[in-house]
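re: ur question from earlier - yeah i can do the single chain one, its not a big deal. heres the input i used so u can compare w yours
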Amino acid sequence: MIRTMCAAVLVTACAVSASAPTPPPVSTPGADCAAITAPPPRSAPPTSVNTLRQAYFCVLDNYYSGPVMDSRALLKSALAAYTQDLIRRGADRADLQLPALTGNRDTDWAAFAKVLGSGDPAALRAAITGMVAGLHDNHARWVRPTPPPEGGPIGTGIVGASAQQGPQLDPAARPPLFITRVLPGSPAAKADVRPGDIVVKVNGVPAFIGDTVNHGILDAFASDPVRLTLKRPTTGRTRTVEIRQGPITRQPPAVTSKTLPGGAVYVRLPGFYEGAADQVIARLRDKPKTVVLDLRGNGGGSPREVTRLLGAFAHGKITSYFCPLKGECVPNRTDDSVPLLGSRLIVLVDRGCASACDDFSAAVKDNGLGTLVGTRTAGAVSGPGEGYLLDDGSVLLLPKVRHLGPAREIIDTIGVPVDHYAPMTALDLATGRDPGVAKALTLL
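and the output i got, formated as tokens:
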């Protein structure tokens, strides 16, 4: 889910997206942003005007469209976020306004830095966040690695909700908003919060305004404690519970499988993490006639895992293209070193299927490798991201290329449509029904 909900409520890793995996180790910071090569330092100086300078030039030098961007737009987004943060804290400055900008990135930065002066660290962090958000790119983000809390992870234990669209809330989501996953033994589980419970309000903030999801619930979800007004779909009963964050147990992602009626093998893949493809293939070593691959809620991972898993179902196929700003697109292809299974493929997807999951789904659909069941994928696959270290120990993730589907179509922001529509409802979750699997069984 969105970063606010991930960090404060959902706790489980909101994968920094398929094509942009969790930042690897990073190098020692220097005068400019540095490519990631070694672990970030345990301690770093506070965010400064120089940190913002590094982020500004890093975007212009390394982002997909950075070389042709209007640098004035970056500085405008940065100052808007900077001043908004000051206003929220009652610390606005009368002398703070955007200087006259010319479009020359160096002279504009000099004028901008003069206006900022020594800068306010908290407002500077807001400025970097705002500048990156102004790119409107789901694989561009700024993250501040934090050490794990003493005593292990804490949270509410609510680790999934409907209305997710990859790393954000889905503007096309339809009411109601309901919980999809709760960690066993967590504070939420102890409060009898269950999958399928409908979220009516969060700290009094309604989940939907009419038919539009209310993004205001994000800040509400981030509070501790959080007060949830929930409706149980099996009984119609509405109640309000207050949940405080507490110790939770996070299990590493793992492939699970079972045999369905009729002999098809159902495999659930929660993410395209390292080794995921081989784990799935190991579950299919008996070469079943039909594979039902469940990718619902799969937030992405490594593009290499995508091409490897696709290689078990087809050889010699283009799975996607990575396209630079200028020059030829580079095709990605199935990993033909993987032995073919010869199995029929049915893939279950939803709006939580993002990034590498979008990539896999488009390859299946465009190449006729199987049938998609569920709902349209997230469409959160702008391009693979690379990490750059800033001098305060934070990391800037920026895509250098754009992702296109096998037919050179844009998947980002649009998603991959399904062949058979089978959405999960709150009542389905509450009663243990699975319309996606049910539909798959009719296709066997």
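Residues 1-30 have pLDDT under 50 and may be disordered. not sure if urs matches, ping me
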